[in-house]
Amino acid sequence: MAKRIGTGACLKDLTRHDFLVGSALTAALFTAALLLLPPDATPEGKAPETTAPVSSN
Fold first, then answer.
1. 50 in helix, strand or coil?
2. Within 13 Å of residue 39, how many CA atoms lie on the same side as its CB?
3. Largest CA distance in the chain
4. Helix H or strand E encompassing 36
5. What is the pLDDT of residue 47?
6. pTM greater than the 0.85 cutoff
7. Which value, to the nearest 10 degrees, does the dihedral of the CA atoms of residues 12, 18, 22, 28 take?
8. DSSP state, residue 12
9. Per-residue DSSP letter, 41
10. For residue 13, what are the contacts with CB-CB under 8 A and spacing of at least 6?
């Protein structure tokens, strides 16, 4: 039976299986984030003014 990572466990208790499962879950998390968030997402809030004021001559 493989040792499981618990609280206070040292790094030598990490099994190859635990490492692979953790890596796969991390990859799935990043893939889901890339798929769910639009590529041109900008944070909400006050954005800098990008248009020039129209002058009335």
1. coil
2. 0
3. 84
4. helix 16-36
5. 61
6. no
7. 160
8. G
9. -
10. 3, 4, 5, 6
Distance separating alpha carbons of residues 26 and 29, to the nearest angstrom:
5
Dihedral of CA 12/23/29/38: which sign?
Answer: positive
> Residue 10, Cα to own-chain centre: how many angstroms?
26
Cβ-based neighbour number of residue 13 at 10 Å:
13
Query: How many C-beta atoms lie closer than 10 Å to residue 27's C-beta?
Result: 10
How far apart, in whole angstroms, are the C-alpha atoms of residue 55 and residue 47?
22
Mean pLDDT in order along the chain per 10 residues (57 residues): 60 83 95 85 66 69
- Rounded CA-CA distance 24/6 in Å is 20
